[in-house]
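Protocol step 4 of 6: structure prediction from sequence.
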Amino acid sequence: MAGADAGKIMATLQSSSHLFGAVLKHRDLQDLANFVSYGQIDPKVISDILAHMQTLQERL
């Protein structure tokens, strides 16, 4: 759900299929929804950065 509307994610988290609304406060649900939408990083990007760093280190 990365990039999805945080409001829709929040509604999903509160739905009967997830029930996070029963255990998380409103602000915590907002934070979680924002992380799911905006806070995730593509692991391929990290892998590419680490590979590039390794290449640079080998050249030293």
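Step 5 (inspection) to follow. The CA atoms of residues 48 and 54 lie 10 Å apart.
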